[in-house]
UniProtKB/TrEMBL annotation:
Residues 13-67 form the HTH cro/C1-type domain. Keywords: DNA-binding. This is XRE family transcriptional regulator. SUPFAM superfamilies: lambda repressor-like DNA-binding domains, RmlC-like cupins. It comes from Cryobacterium sinapicolor. The keyword Transferase does not apply. InterPro entries: Cro/C1-type_HTH, Lambda_DNA-bd_dom_sf, RmlC-like_jellyroll, RmlC_Cupin_sf, TransReg_Diox_bact_type.
Length: 183
């Protein structure tokens, strides 16, 4: 196992166990492995076999890859000019995939209309909430309250919704699509 894989597996295992509300003991029982093994793995030590990771994934109801994949970046910014577009053969239409939906995710989609002068400061939402914003018109400071990103029309940003965040319109008639996702 590489030096970074152990801590990555440990963090993923703990995150997924907490997400479904299992104790270490209950996860171990469901996976058919010892409690000590689960504790070691969650602390980033141990050398799990493929079979152990499959058993843990099955017990958690998540795919094996969820326990070993690199975690996604907490903040993503795609400028409109940089979005990879795929055009249509029969019309003047192009699409850019900005974020694919993870399995079993819940997403709510909003059209945001905002004016300058009164920023929307949001308290943290439910643990695991991620927000995606695509700015349609105007400019706005959007994202983590401590380090918001300046968005222009067509820009995309993704940031933790389970931490303080802000939407601060800088121009009259600012509009955006906001997608709130619970992972």
């Amino acid at each position: 196992m590489t030096e970074t894989l152990g801590p990555r597996i440990g963090a993923a295992l703990k995150r997924e166990r907490n997400a479904v509300g299992l104790t270490v003991s209950e996860l171990a029982r469901r996976a058919g492995i010892s409690k000590a093994t689960v504790s070691q793995l969650e602390s980033g030590v141990g050398n799990p076999s493929v079979e152990t990771l499959w058993s843990l994934g099955d017990a958690l109801g998540v795919p094996f890859a969820r326990l070993v994949d690199e975690p996604p970046e907490r903040v993503t910014l795609i400028r409109a000019a940089d979005a990879p577009r795929i055009g249509s053969a029969g019309s003047s239409y192009a699409a850019a995939l900005l974020s694919s939906s993870p399995p079993n995710a819940r997403r709510d989609v909003y059209l945001v209309q905002a004016e300058p002068g009164s920023p929307k400061n949001s308290a943290p939402h439910t643990h695991g909430t991620v927000e995606h914003v695509i700015l349609i018109s105007g400019t706005a400071l959007v994202g983590p309250a401590a380090s918001p990103l300046l968005l222009h029309p067509g820009d995309y940003a993704c940031y933790p919704g389970d931490a303080p965040h802000i939407f601060d319109a800088r121009d009259d008639g600012t509009t955006a699509v906001l997608i709130s996702e619970l992972r």
